[in-house]
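Q: My labmate handed me this sequence with no annotations at all. I'd like to see what the chain might look like in three dimensions before we decide whether it's worth expressing. Could you predict it?
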Amino acid sequence: MLSKGVVPMGSGWFEEYSISAAHTDKDIDDTLSITEDVLKVVKDTL
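A: Here is what I predict for the chain of 46 residues:
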């Protein structure tokens, strides 16, 4: 995810990948798309 520009931020594990009012719909859509792509790669690797 990091290599695709998705950087988890937060002071605790429960805050990583949180959505805030600062995120646009495009930010959220991009993150979901990247997450789907990465999970497919993980699935194909296992």
